[in-house]
């Protein structure tokens, strides 16, 4: 049977991937560390069929837009080349979370697509080989292949840039409350952000700090040291946004001094987090390339954190996605 279904969770980076050594292979400028998110996942079915003249891609029950379909097609080409076949495929993919939620659907999407396509072609690849393939679809997708808490080591070549688990999902009951303050797509793509990053005047400083930060975050996860973990990830998120805010570029011929992924509500939440902590709630934030704020807390404090968010929200229309650490990509799930 030339068909398989796979599930992969989105992941949240605690130490971020921002800037590439090789933009074709997605070799990152630095290691990154993440956690798979239980409530945010993609289910993808791939069917290879001889009667198809072209790949067909459906996203959440509808024909995918051309840009997404082309990106999926290019990834299938990589996998076909690996397998030595030419057969076209039908791809059906569904996310449990909206694309505009500020949770990267490309990570879970390309991880699920890789595993489903590889299995549909009858190949049995190691976790490392799957991670290497997924990385070429979208860098952060390589981190959605292994279980739980994951580190992606930079590597120097295609063969040695992949992610591995540093602790299983059940190692630590850490809760992520993703607060979605706006449901609009981001203004600047992360691929442009990756390209601009090395031109920031703060780039060299960030790169110099990262080995120590990686060491601290790795150790804090192993020892479940929430305070060190929280302080490091908050500092890291602001270091990432310092690069973004100083990534000058032009949009339609008009100069911009930097990329502003935050909205006023984002900043309001970041300030609120400092106050909640002063009031005794153990919670820290991180942010990616968008206005969504991720709040990390021990699982038993999750309700308290969500209550604090509701109170701050007032009459605005925020929503939350609450996740624990999750396993890596796996075969199965309902065929769509
Ligand atoms: C800010 O993995 O989306 O979320 O490799 O170009 O597909 P491509 O980039 P992508 O970048 C993710 C950037 C980030 C940080 C992170 O997840 O580490």
Give a topology summary.
Elements: E1 3-15, E2 20-22, E3 27-28, E4 32-48, E5 56-59, E6 62-63, H1 66-83, E7 89-95, H2 105-120, H3 127-137, E8 149-153, E9 162-167, E10 174-180, H4 190-196, H5 203-223, H6 226-245, E11 249-251, E12 254-256, H7 264-278, E13 284-287, E14 293-298, H8 302-313, E15 319-323, E16 330-331
Parallel strand pairs: 5-7
Antiparallel strand pairs: 1-4, 1-16, 2-3, 4-7, 4-8, 5-6, 8-9, 10-14, 10-15, 11-12, 13-14
Helix pairs in contact: 1-2, 1-3, 2-3, 5-6
The structure holds ligand DP6.
What do these coordinates show?
The chain folds into two domains: 2-170, 2-Layer Sandwich (Ribosomal Protein S5, domain 2); 174-323, Alpha-Beta Plaits (2-Layer Sandwich). The chain contains eight helices and 16 strands. It has helices at 66-83, 105-120, 127-137, 190-196, 203-223, 226-245, 264-278, 302-313; strands spanning 3-15, 20-22, 27-28, 32-48, 56-59, 62-63, 89-95, 149-153, 162-167, 174-180, 249-251, 254-256, 284-287, 293-298, 319-323, 330-331. Strands 1, 4, 5, 6, 7, 8, 9 and 16 form an eight-stranded mixed beta sheet that branches. Strands 13-14-10-15 form a four-stranded antiparallel beta sheet. Strand 8 and strand 9 (162-167) form a beta hairpin. It is globular, with a radius of gyration of 20 Å. 47% of the residues are buried. The protein binds ligand DP6.
Helix and strand pattern: EEEEEEHEHHEEEHHHEEHEEHEE
End-to-end C-alpha gap: 16 Å
Alpha-carbon Rg, integer = 20 Å
Q: Number of helical runs? A: 8
Overall geometry comes to globular
**Total strand segments:** 16
**Quaternary class:** single chain
Low-confidence residue ranges = none
Nearest-integer average pLDDT: 95
Strand content range: 25-35%
Number of domains: 2
Instruction: Give the helix level as a range of percent.
Output: 25-40%
Return the CATH class of the largest domain: Alpha Beta
């Amino acid at each position: 049977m030339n068909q398989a279904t796979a599930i992969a969770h989105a992941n949240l980076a605690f130490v971020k991937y921002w800037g590439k050594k090789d933009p074709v292979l997605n070799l990152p400028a630095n290691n990154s560390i993440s956690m798979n998110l239980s409530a945010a996942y993609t289910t993808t079915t791939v069917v290879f069929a001889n009667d198809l003249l072209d790949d067909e891609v459906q996203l959440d029950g509808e024909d995918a837009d051309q840009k997404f379909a082309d990106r999926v097609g290019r990834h299938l080409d990589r996998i076909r080349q690996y397998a030595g076949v030419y057969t076209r495929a039908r791809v059906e993919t569904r996310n449990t979370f909206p694309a505009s939620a500020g949770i990267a659907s490309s990570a879970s999407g390309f991880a699920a697509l890789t595993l489903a396509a590889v299995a549909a072609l009858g190949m049995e690849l190691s976790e490392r080989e799957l991670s290497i393939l997924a990385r070429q679809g979208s860098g952060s997708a390589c981190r959605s292949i292994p279980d739980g808490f994951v580190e992606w080591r930079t590597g120097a070549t295609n063969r040695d840039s992949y992610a591995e688990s540093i602790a299983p999902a059940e190692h630590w009951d850490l809760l992520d409350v993703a607060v979605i303050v706006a449901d609009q797509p981001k203004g600047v793509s992360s691929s442009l952000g990756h390209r601009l990053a090395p031109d920031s005047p703060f780039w060299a400083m960030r790169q110099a700090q990262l080995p120590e930060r990686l060491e601290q975050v790795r150790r804090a996860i192993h020892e479940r040291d929430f305070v060190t973990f929280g302080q490091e990830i908050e500092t890291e998120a602001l270091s990432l946004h310092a690069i973004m805010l100083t990534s000058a570029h032009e949009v339609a011929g008009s100069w911009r001094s930097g990329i502003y992924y935050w909205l006023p509500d984002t900043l309001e939440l970041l300030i609120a987090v400092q106050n909640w902590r002063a009031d005794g709630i153990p919670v820290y934030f991180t942010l990616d390339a968008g206005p969504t704020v991720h709040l990390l807390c021990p699982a038993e404090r999750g309700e308290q954190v969500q209550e604090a968010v509701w109170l701050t929200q007032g009459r605005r229309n925020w929503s939350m996605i609450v996740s624990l650490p999750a396993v890596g990509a796996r075969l199965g799930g309902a065929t769509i």
